[in-house]
Design goal:
This protein is an alpha+beta fold. The protein folds into two domains: about 110 residues, no CATH class; about 60 residues, no CATH class. Helix content is about 45%, strand content about 25%. It contains five helices and six strands. Strands 3-6-5-4 form a four-stranded antiparallel beta sheet, with helices on one face. The protein has a two-stranded antiparallel ribbon with strand order 1-2.
Length: about 180
């Protein structure tokens, strides 16, 4: 009689361990999914970021040994996006050359990579310009640009982390 109850107890504990491990794993995946979805939505709401840029935010559950109770969710962000998470000052060396909005052939291209020769025009009391051979301005030079804080991915991650207990309870009760 004692042996049968010991085996039964062992079986119950094994089932319970599997239930808890599955709930922990499911919670990790849910947290990663929510952080990624809400973070990308926040980046999109900032307005000027493409879908490709939004995909620069990734959240995933790191795979650990099987049957472990430790679950880690890692959030990675494209280096470009970090400046908009905290706000940043971008400085030129010595000037930062920014393409003019009407210079379509210069847009999205650094001044040093521009395929045709450029000439610098220094204007007293105004920003310098880089112009092409034909005399049309392509870039203007400034010392620095201040990028404002546009989104809050870390705050979103903290909010989702605050819901871990609810997620865990829900997954644990589903398996009962």
């Amino acid at each position: 009689m004692m042996i049968a109850s010991r085996e039964r107890f062992s079986d119950l504990m094994t089932r319970q361990r599997k239930r808890v491990t599955k709930a922990i794993t499911s919670t990790g995946y849910k947290v990663a999914r929510d952080i990624q979805r809400e973070g990308r939505r926040d980046i999109a709401s900032a307005g000027r970021f493409s879908t490709k840029t939004q995909r620069g935010l990734k959240a995933f559950k790191l795979r650990k040994r099987a049957a472990t109770k430790t679950t880690v969710v890692r959030v990675t962000m494209n280096r470009f996006l970090r400046g908009f998470e905290f706000g940043a000052v971008i400085r030129g060396r010595p000037l930062l050359w920014i393409a003019l909005s009407f210079a379509a052939d210069a847009r999205g291209m650094r001044a040093r990579k521009y395929p045709k020769p450029l000439f610098r025009i220094d204007r007293p009391g105004r920003v310098p310009l880089l112009i092409g051979r034909e005399g049309e301005p392509k870039y203007f030079g400034i010392e620095q640009v201040t990028e404002p804080k546009l989104f809050r991915v870390r705050a979103i991650a903290r909010e989702v982390a605050g819901r871990v207990g609810q997620y865990y309870s829900a997954f644990l009760s589903k398996q009962a």
